[in-house]
Design brief:
homotetramer; seven-stranded parallel beta sheet; 7 strands; alpha/beta; 6 helices; globular
Chain lengths: ~170, ~170, ~170, ~170
């Protein structure tokens, strides 16, 4: 059996300390469960998640827009530079079994949409604004019957994860 | 001076005849103005726009997700197969000077977001639902000061276009 | 019937004036035949070909690695920025009906290989060194029965083109 | 310190049993050294390398052209579907610190060229024909001073690797 890969998406610029704490705690808990984490490899939410994963001895992969491994935050174990610019936003959704969105601006929304198109279950975190909150409980369009599952706490996310993983 | 390139984005599956009539009329009017049209090259809105452009003797380019020119609708003058799957949704926004969204599901929303990130002016058509209507008059995130300009009629679109082009 | 699209590939840095004259003359002759020209949109061979096409009133498209239309040489009619870095080298071969290689380093060789994989006829110009010369008359691998057709003069290229186009 | 990532590239269709034995042995030895292996994730050389890595308890990543994890061979630990078609050939070179080519047709040659452009050291295996042999000891173009380092045995590859890694 392959390990579960969890995509965590969110903004590279975060000014809300609570959001970073949430992301770090989430990374830690996901790593404890043995999930591999994949992100966009940059700052903000992506860095916090990988930092948490590292704390718990987990593995995180960062799919970068540039051609330079140096663009990765220091907690990424395996940086994957793509030099595809923002077209790299298609890859985290494709590589993930489940996608968790925390806040987010246009770039995160792109990743949510790719997750939707590629039929990946999406968990949308509530509490920090952004597109994960705006779309939580909703559908991006009518081609799927499920919704973006709303989660308020790290515990919520983990519970929804458990349920979703059984359906993979 | 290079010719203005207008990106028109929207769904490949349209069940509302009015929407197709709108798209065709828009394509015709844009072509009359001498604008080059770029779309995703497939069915639905994309086909209707190119059909209209063809009627007026205009030029339309279709940037396709597959590797096959045959995927292009019959009104595309220059099909550009990319074999990039939905990552091709990054290209129409980049090639366009102005982007016009008509309705649309997740794929169109991706193109609206790329347009937003790459700082292209966006016109959002109102009247056929979809993401162009949901986001008309709004911002996708706070990194830009302008909004997705709402337009109800083809005439509206053309008037906004005229104004936007002066700022390019 | 769609117009024939000819991909012309070659280096962005050319120090041999004869090579640029060849490329410009080729662009002019291709445009006279009514073919649409597609290149990587940058300097060197790409610029010379578009310059020639412009002289004859033809249309040339430039598929750029960056996100900026300004990267295009001044003779490109329709710049298509992709922000895909060198992954954009997959697109000219896909959009072309026939590919003509003039000289070239690693980037041109990539485009020759993509042309080979996507089953596009390739003409390899002899006389200016580079990969077009090294591979002229040869196969890149054994999956195709044809070869990279060698051409010494612009006239050669045009004659081979005529023959190839009949088989499309 | 990040772990060294080794890209191994080669054909998906291999009819020479010795070549597969070589690739498997190489994967095993690379994994024993603690290197992470990244390949195109498919059959042939890619599968043999991951099989060897698995035997030694190593980690291998497979960057796939399609959108389906199922395309990965059974020994890939982390499949990364890209849905980019053959444009995915740009990613293994970018993610690798060192690239090892075994045989190979046009697709492998594309990866060798991207490795060259992105300035990654390349080891070219001799003994099984293909582009790794044709280019061993040579330069793809004049922009680099080094060559594609020729290696006849797995031991050769490992020795060259050791030397190259000191320069990273």
């Amino acid at each position: 059996m392959r390990k579960i890969v969890v995509g965590v998406i969110g903004d590279s610029e975060i000014y809300n300390k609570e959001e970073l704490i949430f992301a770090e705690k989430l990374g830690e808990e996901l790593a404890k469960k043995g999930y591999i984490i994949i992100t966009g490899g940059r700052t903000g939410v992506m860095e916090a998640v990988s930092k948490g994963a590292k704390k718990a001895g987990g593995l995180s992969i960062g799919v970068l827009p540039s051609a330079c491994k140096e663009e990765a935050n220091p907690y990424v174990d395996i940086p994957i530079p793509t030099n595809l610019g923002w077209a790299r936003n298609t890859i985290v959704p494709l590589a993930a079994d489940v996608v968790i969105a925390i806040g987010g601006r246009a770039g995160t929304l792109i990743e949510m949409c790719y997750s939707w198109i590629y039929n990946k279950p999406i968990i949308g975190v509530i509490g920090f604004g952004g597109w994960s909150e705006k779309l939580a409980g909703k559908r991006i369009d009518d081609r799927r019957q499920d919704v973006i599952y709303p989660a308020k706490t790290v515990k919520d996310v983990l519970q929804i994860m458990e349920r979703l993983i059984k359906t993979l």
